[in-house]
Structure prediction request, 262 residues.
Amino acid sequence: MPIRTSYVAFATRADPALTVAGRLNTIADAGSGPTPGVVICHGSDGVDGRGEFHAAALNAAGIATLEIDMWAARGVARGAAARPRSPVETLPDAFAARAFLADQPEVDAARIGIMGFSWGGVVTLLAATRAAQRLADGGPGFAAHVALYPVCWAYEQVPGLSLAELTGAPVLIQTGAADTYDDPDGLDQLLARLPPASRAVIRGVTHPGAGHGFDRDLPAQTINDPFAHKGQGGPVLMEFHPQAAEAARTLAVEFFREAFGG
Prediction:
């Protein structure tokens, strides 16, 4: 697929108001008209290659992407110590990105999804809640959600992080069994806490042997995060797992294609 890359910026409804930048990849010669699109939200380490890794596969499948930088607009350094207090604060960025993507003539406004990693995975899941829909200014929400290792223990435990009332759009959660933010069966525990209506729209996949950031193709890194180890805090190893990374990327593309209708 011939790709056109543009570097863009747009205003958000964050408080205070911000201008967020992003990298927009559209299909230069779609042939059959506007294509679906996906907003990509980074983790606590900022834009670090994970978004580009997944965007390449989405673009090859004929899906436009907009990877946003939630940190630069806030003057925030990379890492857990510098990020905002809660992913809720960055939800306006995601919905503003959706609105921007919907305005692009190459993109089908009715077929826009969202995906994210860690912090961005939390944003991705919260964007699927009815409570977050107010940020869509009366417009449609996201058509599909793919969250990678979104700190599963926190939902229904931390105030403001609830998946009890979802919009009904399909959700794919992918985790690693060796992710020390959670127990090895943390995703199963999350699904068990949710009401049947929420479980009905969520598909969960746990990749054996994979840890946090398993699709981050960079040297291994140990971080410290107060949300790690089910909120007890402590070190977390982020290490690339090639098999899990490729499997997760393939599943994400297949999931979005199905949600978008082919």
